[in-house]
Amino acid sequence: MKHFTNILYVLDQEAEQPCGLERAVALARGNQARLKVVSVIESLPAGTPLEGLDLTTDDLQAASLAESQQRLSALVEPLRGRVAIETKVLTGKLFVEVIREVLRHDHDLVMKCVGDKPPMAALFGSEDLHLLRKCPCPLWLGRPQDDLNYRRVLAAVDVEPLASNKEQAQQQALNATILDLAATLATSEFAELHVAHVWAALGEPILRGGMIVTPAETKITAYIEAERRSHSQALEQALADLESRLGAEALRWLKPIRHLRKGSPREELPALAKRIEADILVLGTLGRTGISGLLIGNTAEAVLQRIDCAVLAVKPAGFICPVVA
After folding, report:
1. How many domains does the chain have?
2. Domain extent for 69
3. Does residue 34 sit in helix, strand or coil?
4. Could you give the CA distance from residue 12 to residue 114 in angstroms, rounded to a whole number?
5. Mean pLDDT rounded to a whole number for the chain
6. Is residue 137, in this structure, part of any structural domain at all?
7. SS3 of 56, please?
8. In what residue span(s) does the UspA domain sit (predicted)?
9. Which residues have C-beta within 8 Å of that of residue 280, sequence separation ≥ 6?
């Protein structure tokens, strides 16, 4: 079972209420993890005199820092009896400073809230998108309207049987992380665990489009059914691997509900999340590992734009963060 050990909660300075902080405290307590709560303030130019005032921008920066520290301390004080909490005010650009904090102190989960609108539709071009693309550890993005207790956890895995050996190894490692995190969440929340894989038969539109000599319909049908079985078996193997890590008893208790959906992930995953009323979607941001800033791919972005639930986004092994500590 995957456990977090060092959680970083990012406070939204503009939010009236600390969305998700209660969940961060509960998660830290349940995992016996360290919890750090940070806020990020704007960095002002150093040493600039303020015309007509006996002050400089350094004075404003110090006052802003003191005010933020005071607010942060007051916010977490009622929660300190439940878990030890460290507070810290960072100065600079939010996504850069949060990622630097992750790199310097080995945080294994970042938690942050998005706005009141459907979360992912409003992300792009924002600090949250930068975090999705560049944060080296799992990123949990919640919403103010989220229930404190999740009822349904949806894990999206990619089990493409036709991938190369190297790609399959990368997929399996990422799927293992996704499923371990989803299983941990479902266990701690006493929630249903749903596991989804969206598949398509390679070349089906061409076979049905008349652009080549079309085989008999029965052969096309048989081919598509064979593809479905292949993807189904790969999904079952991913769950068997999960069982080997968790143990048979734990998996029997979780009773993961399988969803093998035919079509496009960008359409099927949001539709499934809506249909089952998922509280959180756990998915990998699949893309080019090792290339700075290009990790989150077109499919992942399209899915995130369409869903209306919390997200736990996971990076594949080998990701190189473009931000330096």
Report:
1. 2
2. 1-113
3. strand
4. 8
5. 86
6. no
7. strand
8. 4-141, 150-315
9. 142, 150, 153, 154, 185, 309, 310, 311, 312
